[in-house]
Write a structure and sequence with these properties.
Blueprint (H helix, E strand, L loop, with lengths): L23 E4 L10 H11 L5 H15 L5 H10 L6 H16 L5 H12 L3 E9 H10 L4 E9 L5 E6 L6 H13 L4 H6 L2 E4 L5 H6 L2 E5 L3 H10 L3 E2 L7
Parallel strand pairs: 1-2, 1-5, 2-3, 5-6, 6-7
Antiparallel strand pairs: 3-4
Helix pairs in contact: 1-2, 4-6
Length: 246
């Protein structure tokens, strides 16, 4: 890991205005705190258990490639993974989801990721996990990392409680990730621009560039090639958290 802790600009500062909310420490999940993508790995998990056909598994690999290239639209990416939940309730999915987290995701949350989140917690910052992944898959990681706030892509449910296979509301991806955060802050009666100006955001992906450019303290974590170029041009901190994990 090239940097042991958060960048200097992200540390808690005594100059914070009295009475203002704690500074935001925003974290992407997939390929940032988590080694791998929780949606992509979920389909691999289902495929290994004979619950997914070969054609869908192939589409999973294609979607993963297009996401990392910045080519898949939010509707394509989120819609593809939402469709896999159709026909069951959250409660019916939970046993599989919980086993998936325990056996696949938990080992992919490296100690360095836990430590980084803890440093911001100890500094008194307000922790928000913000991810394009669906809430049902992101929640266990949020709990394991002790995040009090989670903003994720929401899945639509029918009147009988079953997932319809569609998403609901604004997708928490690209410009939608910034829009969802702005709405979240506004709903809490906060000065949105001031909160963003003092916020730190950690991400690996060019897909998160809208939010990275909106915060006062962007930080690239194990970035893809395009994000690394932006980070170098903007003199952003670059962290390496994933080196010792699967």
């Amino acid at each position: 890991m090239s940097t042991a802790g958060p960048p200097q600009g992200a540390r808690h500062r005594s100059a914070q205005r009295a009475g203002s909310p704690p500074r935001l420490a925003l974290f992407d999940l997939d390929n940032t705190l988590l080694t791998g993508d929780s949606e992509v790995l979920w389909l691999d998990y289902l495929r290994a258990r004979g619950l997914l056909d070969a054609a869908t598994a192939a589409r999973n690999a294609e979607m993963d490639h297009r996401y990392h290239a910045g080519e898949a639209t939010p509707a394509e990416f989120c819609g593809f993974y939402a469709a896999l939940f159709a026909g069951r309730t959250p409660q019916q999915w939970q046993p599989l989801r919980d086993d998936y987290f325990a056996t696949v995701l938990a080992p992919r949350l490296p100690a360095a990721a836990h430590a980084l989140v803890q440093q911001h917690r100890a500094a008194g910052d307000r922790l928000v996990l913000t991810t394009a992944s669906s809430r049902i898959l992101a929640e266990p990681s949020a709990l394991a990392l002790d995040f009090p706030h989670l903003i994720a892509t929401e899945l639509e449910t029918a009147a009988d409680g079953r997932y319809t296979g569609r998403t609901a509301g604004t997708l928490n991806m690209r410009e939608g990730k910034l829009a969802r955060l702005r709405d979240w802050l506004a709903a809490r009666g906060e000065d949105v621009d001031a909160a963003l100006a003092s916020a730190t955001f950690y991400s690996d992906s060019i897909n998160d560039l809208p939010l990275l450019l909106a915060v006062g303290h962007p930080c690239a974590v194990d970035p893809d090639a395009r994000l690394l170029a932006h980070a170098q041009q903007g003199h952003w901190p670059v962290l390496r958290l994933q080196r010792d994990t699967p």
